[in-house]
Specification:
The chain has helices spanning 3-29, 40-63, 72-89, 122-127, 129-158, 164-182, 186-210; strands at 36-37, 113-114, 117-118, 120-121. The protein is mostly helical and 211 residues long.
């Protein structure tokens, strides 16, 4: 096997583990004995992570054609951060959050106890400060690492030529993610999350069908 093939195989394993973790987290939510207060926002971001993982994995093969150790670490960091984002998209079964109930759409909601086992509240999970900071912060880190890896790859293959369109798109995406990480307002999260989903679905389909 050539060096690009080894690198592609390693990155494919990481993507496979990320999607497996995402599927396992969803499986835990739908188990019959699991008490869950459902909310669509974390489920939408789980779908976003699925499409993002597929898109990054698919695009990586083109960039890895002339792979060298020079940009191996930026790409490795990108995919490791992608794995962490997939792992943080949905709560673990043991996640618990107790907050005073609020009336605002984006306010933190308390765990309601059904019998002896408290229910898993997806709304409280999504809007919790720790989740927002870690999840969206990791996604920003993945964008930055991916941009660095892509620019290094282009520099090695054809001389340094920064793609302004790509940098603007990644900069806009980072600003969007940063906004979601800093606020717990429902009216901010809802439209930006839907917009992200529509963009990722469209770009992933076009990337796969066009590639």
């Amino acid at each position: 096997m050539s060096q690009p093939e080894y690198i592609a195989a390693l990155l494919s394993i990481i993507v496979g583990l990320a999607l497996t973790d995402l599927a396992r987290s969803f499986r835990e939510l739908v188990r019959p004995q699991r008490k869950v207060n459902w909310h669509w926002l974390p489920l939408l971001w789980a779908a976003n992570m699925f499409f993002l993982a597929i898109q990054l994995w698919w695009n990586s093969f083109t960039l890895l054609t002339e792979a060298t150790s020079t940009f191996f670490f930026p790409f490795l960091l990108t995919f490791l951060l992608l794995y962490l984002a997939c792992a943080f998209a949905l709560p673990d079964p043991g996640w618990r959050k107790s907050q005073p109930r609020g009336d605002a759409p984006g306010s933190k909601v308390s765990i309601e106890t059904l019998g002896t086992e408290p229910s898993l509240d997806l709304k409280a999970f999504h809007f919790s400060k720790a989740h927002r900071r870690w999840f969206f912060g990791i996604l920003i880190g993945s964008l930055v690492a991916g941009q660095v890896g892509t620019q290094v790859a282009r520099a090695l293959a054809e001389g340094f030529s920064a793609s302004r369109v790509e940098m603007l798109l990644n900069g806009g995406a980072a600003a969007l993610l940063g906004t979601l990480g800093l606020t717990d307002r429902w009216w901010v999260h809802a439209p930006l999350s839907v917009l992200s989903f529509l963009f990722l679905v469209r770009s992933t389909v076009l990337t796969v069908l066009g590639g």
